[in-house]
Design brief:
38% helix; binds FE2/S2 (inorganic) cluster; 360 residues; 9-stranded parallel beta sheet; alpha/beta; 12 helices; binds 5'-deoxyadenosine; 11 strands
Length: 360
């Protein structure tokens, strides 16, 4: 890097070796405008260098909002009796996938609550049919299952799996997940990787009782897990959950600062501009794409189900039909001077590759 262009930050941290926790805290603590500008543009350059200018579209179908668990933050948790529960019939899921393919989408993400109605065999049948009828890559995000189930789904044609660890703070994890165990969650993530499934995980930014130290640990845990994909987003309190708090402020600059640091540390992962960045602010996902993200997930859940999949309030696009979200994503991408990803957008990582930005 040209010495004249160096920010004062670059004298304080080394780009020659993996970032330390101190480096991360220094970056996460940046406040002055010129330093933040440097951080955002550096994250953007890192993204361009390692991931290119393409933005990969992944159409997400929220196919069931039934959930057997009671995570304290989640709007569709089992005890929330206000939710109108649905399961999208299999044939309707397949029909959406066939339409997606015609609209140049190359990946479908199938997400649901932890709904055991979808047994190993039932989910496997849906995966196989999508693979028979389309050329889509398939990502699943349906929670914790056993190794045999993940293996079976892989054999049916599943390409990728998303399972966030939500927070690296074990005490907080325990407090907010009455049904789950942190070690078990990490074990599922490791099992997915062992099986050769492209694996995504991530965390929420700003859970109650967490601070910058936790965020630095969250980012480092992503690196340690050597993930293919990392999804993060702001925690947004839902009024019908135990974690609801009054007086919440949505701080987009802070959230995108975390995303920028995440990109600098996990430089060759796919990082989506997740929907929660757009809650309350229309420009959130665009800013995320300019500060490190390289994936966009248009919501292609049919309109009639959408408002029943409110994990948090303020979720964008709840009143839009699926085609509108795809068209809107294309406009966003071109308005940012980027291209829509042409291939499937598989992982670019070689195992253990995320070890320092020396070439940057
Ligand atoms: N605020 C923000 N994100 C949430 N999620 C669930 N509930 C909330 C909330 N209240 C996120 C979790 C989950 C993903 C599907 O949605 O991180 O893994
Ligand atoms: Fe459904 Fe947590 S509330 S998995």
């Amino acid at each position: 890097m040209d010495i004249e262009q160096k920010s004062s930050i670059e004298y304080k941290i080394s780009f020659e070796k993996p970032f330390s926790k101190e480096d991360l805290l220094l970056l996460l603590n940046l406040k002055n405008q010129s330093e933040l500008k440097w951080l955002y543009s550096t994250a953007d350059r890192v993204r361009r260098k390692y991931m290119g200018d393409e933005i990969f579209l992944r159409g997400i179908i929220e196919f069931s909002n039934r959930c057997g668990k009671s995570c304290d933050y989640c709007g569709i948790r089992a005890p929330n009796s206000k939710v109108n529960r649905y399961r999208i019939p299999d044939q309707e899921i397949i029909d959406i996938c066939m339409i997606l393919e015609k609209q140049a989408i190359t990946t479908v993400v199938l997400q649901s609550g932890e709904d055991l109605f979808y047994t190993k065999e039932k989910m496997g049948g849906i995966i196989k049919t999508i693979k028979e009828k389309t050329n889509l890559a398939i990502t699943l995000s349906v929670g914790e299952r056993d190794k045999e189930t993940y293996r079976y789904w892989k054999n049916c044609g599943m390409d990728r799996y998303l399972l966030r660890f939500e927070t690296s703070n074990q005490k907080i994890f325990k407090d907010i997940h009455p049904d789950d165990n942190f070690k078990e969650r990490l074990n599922c993530i490791r099992v997915l990787k062992e099986l050769g499934i492209q694996t995504g995980s991530g965390f929420m930014i700003g859970l109650p009782q967490t601070g910058l130290d936790d965020i630095a640990n969250d980012i480092l845990l992503c690196r340690e897990l050597d993930l293919d994909m990392i999804g993060i987003g702001p925690f947004i309190p839902h009024p019908d959950t135990p974690l609801y708090i009054d007086g919440f402020t949505f701080d987009l600059d802070f959230y995108t600062k975390v995303l920028a640091v995440l990109r600098m540390v996990n430089y060759n992962c796919h990082i989506p501009a997740t929907t929660a960045f757009d809650a309350f602010k229309k420009e959130g996902r665009n800013l995320a794409l300019q500060r490190g993200a390289n994936v966009f997930m248009p919501n292609v859940t049919p309109e009639k189900y959408r408002r029943d999949y409110l994990l948090y309030p303020g979720k964008p696009c709840v009143d839009e039909p699926g085609e509108k979200c795809i068209a809107c994503s294309a406009v966003r991408i071109t308005s940012l001077g980027r291209e829509i990803g042409k291939g499937k957008g598989h992982s670019l990582k070689k195992p253990g590759a995320c070890q320092g930005l020396s070439a940057f």
